[in-house]
Amino acid sequence: MNIIVPLRQVPDLVEELEIESGGKDLDREWLKFKVNEFDDHALEEALCFKEDHGGQVIAIALDANDADKALYAAAAKGADRVIKITGNFEGQVASRTAAKAMANVIAQLEWNMVFAGVQAVDERDGQVGVLLAHFLGVPHVSVVTGVSNNGGTLEIHKEYGGGIIAEFEVAPPVVLGIQAARQTPRYVPVAKVRRAMRSTDLEEMDAGDVSVNVGSQVTRMYKPEAGGRAEMLEGSAEEVAAKLAEIIRSKV
Amino acid sequence: MNVYVITEHLNGSISDHTFELLGKAKQLAGGDSVTALLAGHGAEGLASQLGAASKVLYADHPNLENFNPQSYCKAYSQMLKDRMPGLVLVPYSSMGMDLASGLSVSLDVPVLAYAQDVNAGGGKITVVSQLYGGKINVESEVDGDSCIAAVLAGVFSADEGKADGSPEVEQVSVDGLDDLQVKFKRLIEPEGGDVDITQAEVLVSVGRGIQSDENLSIAEELAAKLGGAVSASRPIVDNKWLPKTRQVGKSGLKVKPKVYIALGISGAPEHIEGMKDSELIIAINTDPNAPIFDYANYGVTEDLFDVVPALTEKL
Ligand SMILES: Cc1cc2nc3c(=O)[nH]c(=O)nc-3n(C[C@H](O)[C@H](O)[C@H](O)COP(=O)(O)OP(=O)(O)OC[C@H]3O[C@@H](n4cnc5c(N)ncnc54)[C@H](O)[C@@H]3O)c2cc1C
Ligand SMILES: Nc1ncnc2c1ncn2[C@@H]1O[C@H](COP(=O)(O)O)[C@@H](O)[C@H]1O
To answer: Domain check: are B12 and B94 in the same one?
Structure first.
């Protein structure tokens, strides 16, 4: 089975996020991007599935926020094809637009499953995986923590609260929103990514017509008010530890 | 504004998340109606718990007995199709994640995810989404008069939405549910763990800031001193450093200990959902902007590897 894995670069949350002076977008000048953590899991699950059952893993990404880097890293990890979707993707791209672009490209590929990340932290307009499934006219299952192959039919585990799992039987084609791979996503050393940059054919495909109606406008972006904020304890590690010990002891 | 709420149920009980949305719906509807949407099989009886709604729309089919992303999407979209304009509140839960965006396409109505507030004053719908792991809020204004809002758990009070009474139930017939590519098989309950973190009075909870499984010992030593247990955020469990039974949050367990000590946890909404009702919350995190500090009573921005051993020694 061929598996398509859409990769999304999201701002690294360890870095400070600033809002631009207009107050409607992040200040994008210094943003540092990294692959969405759930996409690492989606790619890992796809590679494991391929290792067990054959087929191809095809990583795709919109041409935005250093997509090449994510695609070459995917190639270094074992993706068979890496495709950059070209078009105008400046600034924040609505999920719907991204999903439409992917649907246009995916329609030209031979595929059985899409493994998207379950969600990304940076978009208010719904989940790309689910939107994509509806554009492609295929079913979807989100919050997936297990995929296994039963002679062409898939056995899917979807996670609810409290660790309860629902098991579904699914006949592909299908889009899955992957929450966690069966194992910790593999790591590739930088040297291997560099080698992949030299040896990989990074394909480009045009997004085509991506006109969609998002149906809402951003009116304001702000950092949450520090309303019920914690009382911050200052001092050396020793001093802070002493204060904490006192606070905890008064409670238990 | 007519408001519709999707009723989430599992094993015969309606989620608190649903009641939170019903409470909010009553407030948003003003003089207009609040309608609860219910899909199931032989589940009509659940309507008696939906007294906060003025009406319940109910779809019954064998393939709706258990949640199924495909059959539920089809059912809800048929139930809502001729009832727009309106505001649809969907729990942003595991089930709701399979519904909100799909309904948005099939109904051609905008969707706003990660909603932590919804307003509908003056006929204009605005939604505040909590993005970037809780670090940034984004307010959106909807162009038309319909919207699907996927609302986070725990932001509105469930009490407001809990009311007895038997609202009028209208059966809605839905089609296209016989032939599905997605089939529900079974529910798998989690295995009991070595420790029940929901019963512990003190939880020392570790996040990605702990860096490696070898470092877990510093959390274990602190927990041992306090007679508590070690719990964790999701990445720690996904890395298999601790069993699933130790996970706090949306897809883990909800905990309410006397003391919750968060070590190297950023405070993503999915984590907060599981621990915000703890009596006393202490957070140690090197990032002064970490959202966890918005929920903690006491905060420390020092390196956890310096503070925790010192604290264990002092206790
Ligand atoms: C459907 C769904 C369900 C989910 N369910 C859950 C759930 O049940 N529970 C859950 O926790 N998450 C859940 N998540 C994941 C959630 O979105 C976050 O990814 C996760 O909570 C982040 O975990 P973290 O805070 O440990 O890691 P990070 O966000 O990476 O934070 C690590 C923190 O450690 C700090 N740090 C680093 N080094 C140090 C140091 N030396 N000393 C002190 N601080 C340090 C950093 O400043 C940072 O703030 C879910 C996600 C989805 C999509
Ligand atoms: N611009 C994009 N390029 C490639 N993949 C994307 C893009 N946006 C979203 N995705 C995929 O959809 C998943 C969910 O993102 P989101 O729906 O925005 O929360 C991501 O984890 C990716 O797998």
So the answer is: yes
